[in-house]
């Protein structure tokens, strides 16, 4: 690990201003992703700004009947909150499908959204990787790509976003609240938080330098059967090959987002018009632009079958 300096931020605005002005500064929350990357020297921040003491760890009801989840709320606490379990069950289910109990006790809402890909070549400094070292090439294209993306990918990068929680937040139409270095705040629809790789896969989000996530707001509950199915190579401690977050209403309409297939939680609203026709029709719309590799072609069929299982369960 390279030497670095450390400080505790005193307010969200202070954290944001310092992160923007100090070269090589990064926020640290639970540290479960960032510290691993630092140990491997994949990330080498010169200065860490600890945002744990900023009071951003509350879950509060909003005036319009939604829920505001502080950026520092731990994954365990969010999954266990009775309001979340009752009204946003897809979120609670996605959270408990992720990582392990110990990790969820430490991992935070913002850190989970901003965790980096699990592409094996990204974690191997001896291999070219456009995301780790822009312009060096992509080892996964033509390499081992079983775990990687089938849609939303590019000639420069086929990595997936690893978060389970983000897939549920996408289907719930969450909004990410931030404070910018000048002190101004903004609200970003979760659909616009993560960027597709294009030819700049190292630019992963729409956040500007130093912008701090302060909360994630969930709109008022939409009801329905809310399910999250995650298919993975082992029952625990594994990232999704494919996951499905779905909200299915009694009349058969609903919403669907996929995880494990794209560089961001993958939702195509137009595909949801086919909900009553079943999984095949919805998946055809969701993955119409899929460009799988020979290694991961199975994910297209797996997504359809996983969605079929979700719809069957939702309809009882
Ligand atoms: C063995 C293992 C298995 C795992 N399995 C899964 C899994 O199955 N599913 C899953 O979804 N996840 C899984 N994870 C990932 C885990 O959920 C993430 O590491 C965790 O959610 C990150 O949260 P954190 O608070 O520790 O983030 P940190 O490591 O502290 O930060 C992550 C990133 O977010 C930035 N950041 C943190 N807070 C803010 C903020 N408020 N504003 C702006 N930037 C911020 C940091 O600068 C950093 O870049 C696994 C992790 C491990 C180690
Ligand atoms: S898929 Fe993306 S993260 Fe993986 S090696 Fe290629 S550029 Fe790097």
From TrEMBL:
Annotated signal peptide: none
InterPro entries (alphabetical): CO_DH_flav_C (IPR005107), CO_DH_flav_C_dom_sf (IPR036683), Diverse_Substr_Oxidored (IPR051312), FAD-bd_PCMH (IPR016166), FAD-bd_PCMH-like_sf (IPR036318), FAD-bd_PCMH_sub1 (IPR016167), FAD-bd_PCMH_sub2 (IPR016169), Mopterin_DH_FAD-bd (IPR002346)
Domain of life: Bacteria
Single GO term (MF): FAD binding
Pfam assignment, any one: FAD_binding_5
FAD-binding PCMH-type domain sequence ranges: 1-223
Keywords per UniProt: FAD, Flavoprotein
Key word Flavoprotein present: yes
Protein's UniProt keywords contain Flavoprotein: yes
Name of the protein in its database record: Xanthine dehydrogenase YagS FAD-binding subunit
